[in-house]
Amino acid sequence: MLFCYHYRLKSIPRPAMKVCVFGDQHHLDEANANGIPCMSADDLKKLNKNKKLIKKLAKSYDAFLASESLIKQIPRIIGPGLNKAGKFPSVVTHAEPLATKVEETKATIKFQMKKVLCLSVAVGHVEMTQEELVSNISLSINFLVSLLKKNWQNVRSLNIKSTMGKPQRLY
């Protein structure tokens, strides 16, 4: 059973998440005004398909956004590096504000199951209120269970834990 799904939570689970924008002039101006890291098509061409530089770029950011006009050129400009890292950019249009799209990206969690039948997802942080945490946890659990063929019969156990804390069994 292999799958990869994205789900948007109400509260941002990772506020420190770093997002970079590959944009046209409109998006570059908007990103600079909001203090969001950004790169133009020329900056990407300077990477010159250098695998080490692209890997370094992929490691330095958690997610990428790209303008509609640039999204089709990205594989040609920088090759498969971002795709291999699982960080291919999401599309951002001129219609919606860039800051909103960045917030939406930060609030999105990724359920990805490969060969190992175990899944871990960040759903909160220390500064969140108890209500926000409960909301995020229940939303993510319900979404995950809805993805499974036999719903709850496919879940053996369900735990929550803080970074250094002991796991607390929920199911």
Automatic annotation (TrEMBL):
Any one GO MF annotation of this record: RNA binding
Gene3D superfamilies according to UniProt: 3.30.190.20, 3.40.50.790
One GO-annotated biological process of the protein: translation
Range of residues in the leader sequence: none
Classification via Pfam families: Ribosomal_L1
Entry annotated with the keyword Transcription: no
InterPro entries: eL8/uL1-like, Ribosomal_uL1, Ribosomal_uL1-like, Ribosomal_uL1/biogenesis, Ribosomal_uL1_3-a/b-sand, Ribosomal_uL1_CS
Gene Ontology, cellular component aspect: large ribosomal subunit
Keywords associated with the record: Ribonucleoprotein, Ribosomal protein
CDD domains in the record: Ribosomal_L1 (cd00403)
Sequence similarity: Belongs to the universal ribosomal protein uL1 family.
Name listed for the protein in its UniProt record: Ribosomal protein
Lineage of the species this protein comes from: Eukaryota, Metazoa, Ecdysozoa, Nematoda, Chromadorea
